[in-house]
Amino acid sequence: MAFFAFEFIPVETVTPWGPPNAPEFHWYALTDGRFWIDADGKLPLGDGVAFYVAQIWESLLDVNRQEASALNLRFLEAAPEVTFSWVGDTVCMAWGGDSCEIPQERWRLEIRDFHERFFAAMAERASLGGPNFALDHATRYLWLE
Q1: pTM of this prediction?
Q2: Which positions of the chain have pLDDT values less than 70?
């Protein structure tokens, strides 16, 4: 199982964004789904959080760059707190009285794996996207670099 896992809601249930006379399937809207973490059998987010997977992806990029020390889950009621600290070559993830340690090399591989799977899944939705989908997709892909 993937360390960072997600699934999108079916495309037929995605709500288009924009004005009523010209709604479109915005790139971000098409990421509506569920996200969870499987830290070697530990589930910091339980069975997952339902929201835009892009929000979690962006938050993980901030953590990866060490620009944030916690997942940004403010959009959830009673949001769980998942924090990260870097100790030497180890990333320590803590939540609700539990924790796990991940070698930094594995952390970077897990982030890259999530990024690639996420963008591959989004590419499958490209035909539904609005006029800016391709540019949004290509631009955001480079954010990991």
Answers
A1: 0.91
A2: none
Q: Which two tokens stand for residue 50?
A: 């339902």
Rounded Cα gap, residues 91 and 11, in angstroms: 35
Question: Token digits for 44?
Answer: 């910091």
Contacts for 14 with CB less than 8 Å, ≥ 6 apart: 25, 29, 30, 32, 128
Q: What is the model's pLDDT at position 55?
A: 94
| Residue 35, token pair as written in the block | 């996200």
Q: Are 42 and 74 in contact (CB under 8 A)?
A: no
Compute the distance between CA of residue 21 and CA of residue 132 in angstroms, rounded to an integer.
Answer: 18
CA atoms within 13 A on the CB side of 105: 0
Tokens 């870097």 map to which residue?
A: 86
Domain ranges of the chain: 4-68+105-136
Residue the block writes with tokens 């910091």: 44
Question: Of 120, 124, 144, 136, which Cα lies nearest the Cα of 26?
Answer: 136
Both tokens of residue 99? 């924790």
CB 8 within 8 A of CB 31: yes
